[in-house]
Amino acid sequence: METWRISWGNIGGILTVRWRYGTASKIEDRHGSNPVERRLQHQLEEIVKGRRYPAHPLPGVGALIFRGRARRGPILLVERGGKPLKGYWSIPGGLVETGESLDQAVRREVLEETGLRVKPVEMCGIFERIMRDANDRAEYHYVLFDYVCSVVGGKLKAGDDVARVEWVSRARLGDYLMTEGTLEVIERAYSGAGR
Q1: Which residue segment(s) compose the domain that 13 sits in?
Q2: What would the pLDDT profile of 161-193 be if each residue is shown by its tens digit?
């Protein structure tokens, strides 16, 4: 295990990062008490984890979960509770972990974020999300594999980095502040374009 210490003298904080197998396994903060320090700590953590300004696009998964058997009922949305998309609504999902298949990733992410156990039924599409900074550099870059999933168990509850979970009817989708591309992916699933 390798340990790095990152300090910022004018603010007086120290961020200690312990590395194992190429990823940050533990991040400790010392003296990060004011908002400026916390924001800087978050930015450093995102860079250390490789999400912010990644060397290559990061693979992720999304789950389109409809209430009922047909793609006519409400769809499950989650409100993001953490940066960079705090307060935005999207379908459940997240990054694929090393050694994990897409199928395993979508099952894990849905369980962590919603408490539901799901079975991926079919891939609905692939979506690329690139978020650029003020200098037009790719600050975040994801390639997302979206699956239509059916619920096989569990109890619905917000978890992980999610603030709220809601079943939303197709008619009410426009009432939600959604992440870029989410509405198009949902409409595509409703229309069955992935079949």
Answers
A1: 2-49
A2: 899 999 999 999 999 999 888 999 999 999 885
Q: State whether 62 and 18 are in the same domain.
A: no
pTM of the complete model beyond 0.90: no
Q: Which residues are CB-neighbours of 12 under 8 A, at least 6 positions away?
A: 31, 37
**In a shared domain, residues 101 and 31:** no
Tokens (6 digits) for 100: 């994990």
Interacting residues of 138 by C-beta distance below 8 A, sequence separation 6+: 53, 54, 130, 131, 132
Residues 32 and 114 in one domain: no
Asked whether residue 69 falls in the same domain as residue 126, the answer is yes
Give the pairing type, strands 93-95 and 2-8: unpaired
Per-residue pLDDT tens for 83-142?
A: 778 999 999 999 999 999 999 999 999 999 999 999 999 999 999 989 899 999 999 899
Per-residue confidence (pLDDT) for residue 83, from 0 to 100: 78
Residues 6+ apart with CB under 8 A from 96: 59, 60, 61, 102, 105
Given 31, 49, 67, the domain boundary residue is 49
